Amino acid sequence: MATFAKPENALKRAEELITVGQKQEALQALHDLITSRRYRAWQKTLERIMFKYVELCVDMRRGRFAKDGLIQYRIVCQQVNINSLEEVIKHFMHLATERAELARNQAQALEEALDVEDLEADKRPEDLMLSYVSGEKGKDRSDRELVTPWFKFLWETYRTVLEILRNNSRLEALYAMTAHRAFQFCKQYKRTTEFRRLCEIIRNHLANLNKYRDQRDRPDLSLPESLQLYLDTRFEQLKVATELSLWQEAFRSIEDIYGLMCMVKKTPKASLMGVYYGKLTEIFWMSSNHLYHAYAWLKLFSLQKGFNKNLSQKDLQLIASSVVLAALSVPPYDQSYGASHVDLENEKERSLRVANLIGFEVEPKAENRVVLSRSSLLSDLVSKGVMSCVTQEVKDLYHLLENDFLPLDLALKVQPVLNKISKLGGKLSSVSSVPEVQLSQYVPALEKLATLRLLQQVSQVYQTIQIDNISKMIPFFDFTAIEKISVDAVRRNFLAIKVDHMKGAVFFGKQSIEAEGLRDHLSLFAESLSKARTMIYPPAKKAAKLGDALSNLAEIVEKEHKRLLARKSIIEKRKEEQERLLLEMERVEESKRRELQKMTEDAEQKRIAAEYEQRRSQRILKEIEDRELEEAQAMLQEAEKRSKRKKKPILEGEKMTKQVIMELALNEQLRERQEREKKLQKYAKTMDHLERAKREEAAPLIEAAYKQRLAEEAALHEREQQQEIELSRQRHAGDLEEKKRLGRMLENKRILQERVVSSREAEFNRLKQERQERISQIIQSRKQEREARRKMLFFLRSEEERQKRLQEEAEARKHEEAERRKKEESEQQAKLDEIAEKQRKRLLELEEKERREKEEILRRPTAVLPKPAEPPTLGRPTELGGTAPVPAAAAAGKYVPRHLRGNVDAPGQAPPPETDKWGSTGSKPDDRPSWRDERKPTSFGSSGSRTSWSSSRR
Question: Is the distance from CB of 218 to CB of 209 less than 8 angstroms?
Fold first, then answer.
């Protein structure tokens, strides 16, 4: 294990090893540094080392090394800089994904290069032999050699990252992103086995998270952000499972989502719940469970109608039609009829479980239980307004199958409706959680339901009917399929039918007689006999008297029994409540005691850990100093031993410092290095002279050997040339004889060639003529189609322009009508304003006239004393402009203090005129009522004008 003084040295050493091609040694050096206890304090250099480390791991496909390094790095940067771990993991996944895609592209390019017509011409014999022996094609072999190892490494990368991030609350987003990328990997490359393993891994992570939720740095699912991330992961898992057609895994994903919602007691957003119920409909349809499929559609319809305000009316109509058709597709009989007790209990638990998943609250007790049934589902459709949103064809089908009584032509009337329904459907808008709705999938189940309804209605009318007549009444199936449907209905106690193929007839029986009547006839007979015996032999009179005397005894006993039972239940409830309170108190005390104990233990552990860490750091520093001092002394002693000088430096360990020893050792090393370089230069010069002398001696010998070799090769060439000439002469003579022998067949060959060429030329001309005729026919048909399409487009465009023109004319008429009405209103308003203006001017003239009259009255002398015998009376200005005789104090109309009243009451003295706040003199208190009266006509006139205007508007 290599040790480095600084992490930078390890990084440099790794880069040097990579340069010379030793990647394994570089990886081992970085791994030793990362896993060492010496470098547990985070620094930026460690992040760069981790980037280089994961690059080496990806290049060499060493997943185990990558996992160990990431775990150690998580320990280092958990409390200091967790973002560094996030960046390293992202880089790791990016490199693994990039290399896997590169390998896949290389395999595709290799396959395209090998995709030729003549394999024997382009492939080597070794490749052909390998393909025949191994039984593999070129693509399979290239995938096995190039693609598979990298995809295995990428899958191992996703598992490693999920394992590292599973309990880290600070990297929840990265955990969710990794899970999503793993899901997309499984979806893109159709990896069903890996997808199941991935779902199980994530499920185990969540279970462990709930089991050890009190530990440090664990994610808290009660937080909205954490809950949303986990829910998004589960919904992505659900989507990928349905796209890969893993319906069992999709159902388990539904259970995971429901468990997560129950765990945090919070319902996700409406958009996610729409995806939830949409996938439930697919799962239940694939499992042929029509009842739960219909309930899931009903919940999806309620959710879309209540929360999706952007859903169009057409999409809502399609969803409502799907709900009704799914409900009608449910078989009209009880599926559990005739099952064993164990099967009924299992079905009960299954129904309760599925009802909780769908969102219907079902009581576990039998007396309070609301069973998921076809009848309750159809009543819910009517009560929740689903029938008002469906198409007319679906409404007609519902009335035919559920309300109408048509025993002879029910199927014949249902068939055209089903043909119309099968054409409905299509893709929904992007705001809907269901991408596509196809109503044709319900047609087989609806045909089966129509058959059952027809048989049920026919059994109520006829006792016997011919098989041929039934086949004519039911156009959907032949009689074999009808018989199979009938057998299932009889087994479920829905019909009572017997088929006699020898007579060619079907016999209908009454269900009540064959089922319940024969079962209860003995009990009914016993009850009738008991009543007859009572009538023949009445009971004794004593018993009657006793019954009369104690007629209310049974009632009293029943009331007392109920009272005692109620008292007993109250006592039991009180005991249970008291026990619950005691248990709750004990639980609270125990939790407090555990928290206190845990706090003390944590504090003690922190103190012990801090002391241990401090002692450990001191010991490590001391060991490092001692080791460095020993190394320096050993280096110096070794240098002195190697040295040939007789004079040695004085070595005093206690007095000399570490720096001095290091300087002496370095000087000694430098001197030795210089001496070695001088010796090497001298030795190199000697070897150069020796090599030059050797070459000078060997040059003439090499020249002589070369000339001898040239002579030997010239003689060999001449001999081989003579042999080749002789062989050529012999081959030429044989070829001439062969040509003379084959020359006799030349004329026959020419005749055959002309015959073959002429026949092929005639065949070619015939095919060419047929092709020209076929092309002309196609051109003519296409020309007719273009002409018809052009006429249709012209007609549609003309019709559209006509409709647009009519619409514009209607809008223009509406606009002219509005303008005319607006003009009349403006003219009427102007007249009203003119009348109001005239009234206002008239009122102003009246006010001005009254004001002038008041000013003339105030200018006249008013000092006239009243007679003593006459009582003082209040006077108002007369119409002629005079004033009535009034006292001065009373005329003043103001409060006069007591000490001034004598002066006022004295005869012959008039009070001085007082000045009001506007500066006018001689104003009277009677002026204020007149001021108020002056305002009244104005308000009356304005209100009058408003009244007249509003009346005119009306």
Answer: yes
Distance CA 925, CA 927 (A): 5
Give the span between the Cα atoms of 953 and 828, in whole angstroms.
Answer: 9
Q: Which two tokens stand for residue 322?
A: 């799907």
Q: Residue 195: is it exposed, middle or buried by C-beta count within 10 angstroms (0-12/13-18/19+)?
A: buried
Reference 811, options 796, 822, 803, 795; nearest CA is: 803
Contacts of 183 (CB under 8 A, 6+ apart): 195, 198, 236, 237, 240
Q: Which amino acid is at 460?
A: Q
Helices (H), 879-926: 888-892, 901-905
**309 backbone dihedrals φ, ψ, rounded to 5°:** -80, -15
From start to end of 574-699, where are the E strands?
none
Q: What token pair was written down for 840?
A: 């206002």
Distance from chain centroid for Cα 389: 28
Structure tokens at 908: 């012959």
In terms of Cα–Cα distance, which of 98, 113, 207, 199 is closest to 151?
Answer: 98
**Residues composing the chain:** 954
Q: Rounded to 5 degrees, what are φ and ψ at 480?
A: -65, -45
Closest C-alpha to 293, from 304, 307, 279, 272: 279
Residue with tokens 């879309």: 304
Pair of tokens at residue 416: 């055209």
pTM of the predicted structure, to 2 decimals: 0.49
Report the distance separating Cα 733 and Cα 729, nearest Å.
Answer: 6
Residue 652 burial (CB count, 10 A)? 8
Buried b (16+ CB within 10 A) or exposed e, 398-430: bebbeeeeebeebbeebeebbeebbebbeebee
Q: E strands, 604-678, where?
A: none
Give residue for tokens 């005397």: 549
Is the pLDDT assigned to residue 316 strictly greater than 50?
Answer: yes
CA dihedral 776, 777, 779, 785 (to 10 degrees): 160
Which of the pair, 709 or 526, is modelled with greater confidence? 709
Please give the residue that has the higher pLDDT: either 220 or 468. 468
On whether the CB atoms of residues 139 and 111 are closer than 8 A, the answer is: yes
Residue whose tokens read 């299954």: 350
What are the tens digits of pLDDT across the range 273-283? 878 888 888 88
CA nearest to 207, candidates 256, 254, 241 = 256
Of the pLDDT bands very low, low, confident and very high (cuts 50, 70, 90), residue 819 is very high
Rounded CA-CA distance 698/702 in Å is 6
Token output for 404: 């109408």
Three-state SS at 864 = coil
Contact 408, 465 (CB under 8 A): no
What span, in angstroms and rounded, lies between the C-alpha atoms of 285 and 291? 9
- pLDDT number for residue 949: 40
Residue 171, Cβ density class (10 Å: 0-12 exposed, 13-18 middle, ≥19 buried): buried
Structure tokens at 72: 């150690």
State pLDDT tens for residues 728-779: 999 999 999 898 888 888 888 899 999 999 999 999 999 999 999 999 999 9
**Which candidate, 4, 2, 23, 3, places its Cα nearest to that of 14?**
23
901-945 tens-digit pLDDT: 544 444 444 444 444 444 444 444 444 444 444 444 444 344 444
The top-scoring range by mean pLDDT among 10-14, 175-179, 287-291 is 175-179
Do residues 186 and 192 make contact, with C-beta atoms less than 8 angstroms apart?
A: yes
Render pLDDT for 869-885 as a digit per residue (tens, 0 to 9).
444 443 443 333 444 44
Burial state string for 298-328 with b = 16 or more CB within 10 A and e = fewer than 16: bbbbbbbbeebeebeeebbbbbbbbbbbbbb
Element (H, E) at 505: strand 505-508
Sheet with 497-500: list strands edge to edge: 464-466, 505-508, 497-500
Q: Name the CA dihedral angle for 488, 493, 497, 498, rounded to a multiple of 10 degrees.
A: 80
Give the DSSP letter of residue 385. T
